Protein backbone atom coordinates (compact mmCIF):
# COMPACT_ATOMS: atom_id res chain seq x y z
CA UNK A 1 0.00 0.00 0.00
CA UNK A 2 1.42 3.35 -1.08
CA UNK A 3 0.17 6.66 0.27
CA UNK A 4 1.53 9.98 -0.92
CA UNK A 5 1.03 13.35 0.74
CA UNK A 6 1.65 16.42 -1.38
CA UNK A 7 1.09 20.10 -0.86
CA UNK A 8 2.65 23.51 -1.03
CA UNK A 9 5.79 24.28 0.95
CA UNK A 10 4.97 24.82 4.64
CA UNK A 11 1.61 23.00 4.34
CA UNK A 12 2.59 20.54 7.08
CA UNK A 13 3.84 17.49 5.15
CA UNK A 14 6.82 16.86 7.41
CA UNK A 15 4.72 17.57 10.49
CA UNK A 16 2.22 14.94 9.33
CA UNK A 17 5.07 12.45 8.84
CA UNK A 18 6.39 13.15 12.35
CA UNK A 19 2.94 12.64 13.82
CA UNK A 20 2.61 9.32 11.97
CA UNK A 21 6.02 8.26 13.27
CA UNK A 22 4.83 9.01 16.80
CA UNK A 23 1.73 6.85 16.25
CA UNK A 24 3.67 3.86 14.89
CA UNK A 25 6.65 4.10 17.23
CA UNK A 26 5.94 0.57 18.50
CA UNK A 27 6.16 -0.90 14.96
CA UNK A 28 9.13 -1.82 12.79
CA UNK A 29 9.66 1.31 10.72
CA UNK A 30 12.35 2.16 8.20
CA UNK A 31 12.80 5.19 6.02
CA UNK A 32 14.26 8.64 6.18
CA UNK A 33 13.33 12.22 6.91
CA UNK A 34 14.74 15.48 5.57
CA UNK A 35 14.53 18.18 8.24
CA UNK A 36 15.62 21.75 7.63
CA UNK A 37 18.97 23.04 8.82
CA UNK A 38 18.36 26.46 10.36
CA UNK A 39 20.75 28.97 11.81
CA UNK A 40 19.11 31.90 13.63
CA UNK A 41 15.76 31.02 12.01
CA UNK A 42 17.24 31.17 8.50
CA UNK A 43 17.12 27.97 6.46
CA UNK A 44 20.62 26.96 5.37
CA UNK A 45 19.75 23.58 3.87
CA UNK A 46 18.41 20.14 4.68
CA UNK A 47 19.65 16.97 6.36
CA UNK A 48 18.69 13.45 5.40
CA UNK A 49 18.40 11.07 8.36
CA UNK A 50 17.93 7.29 8.29
CA UNK A 51 15.20 6.35 10.76
CA UNK A 52 16.74 3.03 11.87
CA UNK A 53 20.44 3.84 12.29
CA UNK A 54 19.87 7.55 13.01
CA UNK A 55 22.81 8.30 10.71
CA UNK A 56 22.57 11.59 8.92
CA UNK A 57 24.10 13.44 6.03
CA UNK A 58 23.68 16.87 4.52
CA UNK A 59 21.08 16.58 1.74
CA UNK A 60 21.55 20.08 0.38
CA UNK A 61 23.07 23.28 1.64
CA UNK A 62 23.96 26.83 0.80
CA UNK A 63 27.51 25.91 1.88
CA UNK A 64 28.14 23.04 -0.54
CA UNK A 65 30.48 24.20 -3.30
CA UNK A 66 29.91 21.46 -5.90
CA UNK A 67 26.90 19.47 -7.00
CA UNK A 68 23.59 19.95 -8.75
CA UNK A 69 21.67 23.11 -7.87
CA UNK A 70 18.05 23.19 -6.73
CA UNK A 71 16.87 26.70 -5.99
CA UNK A 72 19.59 28.27 -3.80
CA UNK A 73 21.01 24.95 -2.61
CA UNK A 74 23.64 22.56 -3.88
CA UNK A 75 22.73 18.87 -3.51
CA UNK A 76 25.02 16.34 -1.81
CA UNK A 77 24.39 13.28 -4.03
CA UNK A 78 27.03 11.20 -2.22
CA UNK A 79 25.31 11.91 1.10
CA UNK A 80 21.95 10.79 -0.29
CA UNK A 81 23.57 7.60 -1.62
CA UNK A 82 25.11 6.91 1.79
CA UNK A 83 21.75 7.21 3.55
CA UNK A 84 20.12 4.97 0.92
CA UNK A 85 22.71 2.30 1.80
CA UNK A 86 21.83 2.67 5.50
CA UNK A 87 18.11 2.60 4.73
CA UNK A 88 18.46 -0.66 2.79
CA UNK A 89 20.12 -2.31 5.81
CA UNK A 90 17.00 -1.83 7.94
CA UNK A 91 14.38 -2.03 5.22
CA UNK A 92 13.85 -5.78 4.91
CA UNK A 93 12.67 -6.27 8.51
CA UNK A 94 10.35 -3.25 8.52
CA UNK A 95 6.58 -3.26 8.32
CA UNK A 96 6.23 0.44 7.51
CA UNK A 97 8.34 2.68 5.27
CA UNK A 98 8.36 6.45 5.68
CA UNK A 99 9.88 8.64 2.96
CA UNK A 100 10.10 12.37 3.55
CA UNK A 101 10.44 13.31 0.70
CA UNK A 102 10.32 12.38 -2.98
CA UNK A 103 11.53 15.64 -4.47
CA UNK A 104 13.87 17.35 -6.90
CA UNK A 105 16.91 17.30 -4.62
CA UNK A 106 16.62 13.59 -3.85
CA UNK A 107 16.06 12.70 -7.50
CA UNK A 108 19.60 13.72 -8.41
CA UNK A 109 20.63 10.42 -6.80
CA UNK A 110 20.20 7.39 -9.07
CA UNK A 111 20.36 5.18 -5.96
CA UNK A 112 17.46 7.16 -4.45
CA UNK A 113 15.33 6.72 -7.59
CA UNK A 114 16.06 2.96 -7.70
CA UNK A 115 15.36 2.56 -3.97
CA UNK A 116 12.03 4.38 -4.19
CA UNK A 117 11.01 2.28 -7.21
CA UNK A 118 11.81 -0.91 -5.28
CA UNK A 119 10.02 0.22 -2.11
CA UNK A 120 6.87 1.24 -3.98
CA UNK A 121 6.63 -2.18 -5.62
CA UNK A 122 6.96 -3.97 -2.25
CA UNK A 123 4.17 -5.27 -0.02
CA UNK A 124 5.07 -2.84 2.79
CA UNK A 125 2.93 0.05 3.99
CA UNK A 126 4.60 3.13 2.50
CA UNK A 127 3.84 6.75 3.34
CA UNK A 128 5.81 9.34 1.39
CA UNK A 129 5.68 13.07 1.01
CA UNK A 130 5.72 14.04 -2.62
CA UNK A 131 6.80 17.22 -4.34
CA UNK A 132 3.93 18.65 -6.36
CA UNK A 133 6.19 18.38 -9.42
CA UNK A 134 5.97 14.57 -9.18
CA UNK A 135 2.21 14.14 -8.70
CA UNK A 136 1.53 13.15 -12.33
CA UNK A 137 4.38 10.62 -12.28
CA UNK A 138 3.10 8.93 -9.10
CA UNK A 139 -0.69 9.23 -9.44
CA UNK A 140 -1.01 5.59 -10.58
CA UNK A 141 1.31 4.25 -7.88
CA UNK A 142 -0.93 4.82 -4.85
CA UNK A 143 -3.35 7.13 -3.07
CA UNK A 144 -2.42 10.82 -3.18
CA UNK A 145 -3.65 13.33 -0.61
CA UNK A 146 -3.17 17.07 -1.05
CA UNK A 147 -2.43 18.68 2.29
CA UNK A 148 -3.23 22.24 3.34
CA UNK A 149 -3.06 23.84 6.75
CA UNK A 150 -6.86 23.82 6.79
CA UNK A 151 -7.30 20.08 6.08
CA UNK A 152 -4.35 18.77 8.12
CA UNK A 153 -6.43 16.85 10.67
CA UNK A 154 -8.69 15.35 8.01
CA UNK A 155 -5.76 14.17 5.86
CA UNK A 156 -3.94 12.81 8.90
CA UNK A 157 -7.03 10.85 9.94
CA UNK A 158 -7.43 9.39 6.44
CA UNK A 159 -3.75 8.39 6.14
CA UNK A 160 -3.68 6.99 9.68
CA UNK A 161 -6.87 5.05 9.03
CA UNK A 162 -5.44 3.52 5.87
CA UNK A 163 -2.15 2.40 7.35
CA UNK A 164 -3.66 1.25 10.62
CA UNK A 165 -6.32 -0.83 8.86
Write down the Rg.
15 Å
- What pattern of helices and strands is seen along the backbone? EHEEEEEEHEHEHEH
From the N-terminal CA to the C-terminal CA, the straight-line distance is 11 Å
Strand share of the residues? 25-35%
Number of helices: 5
Low-confidence segments: none
Per DSSP E runs of 2 or more residues, the count of β-strands stands at: 10
Mean pLDDT: 95
Structural class: alpha/beta
Share of helix among residues? 25-40%
Main β-sheet description? 10 strands, mixed
Shape: globular
Q: Which structural traits does this protein have?
A:
165 residues; alpha/beta; 10-stranded mixed sheet
Structure characterization notes:
The protein is an alpha/beta fold. Helices cover 33% and strands 32% of the residues. The chain contains five helices and ten strands. A hairpin with a 5-residue loop joins strand 4 and strand 5. Helix 2 (77-91) packs parallel to helix 3. The longest helix is centred in the middle third of the chain and has 15 residues, at 77-91. It is globular. The termini are close together. The mean pLDDT is 95.
Amino acid sequence: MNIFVTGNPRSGKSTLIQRLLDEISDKKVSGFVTPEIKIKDVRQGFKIIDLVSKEEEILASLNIKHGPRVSRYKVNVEGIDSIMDKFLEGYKSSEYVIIDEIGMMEFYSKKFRETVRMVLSSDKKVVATLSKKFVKEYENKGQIYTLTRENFDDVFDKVWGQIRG
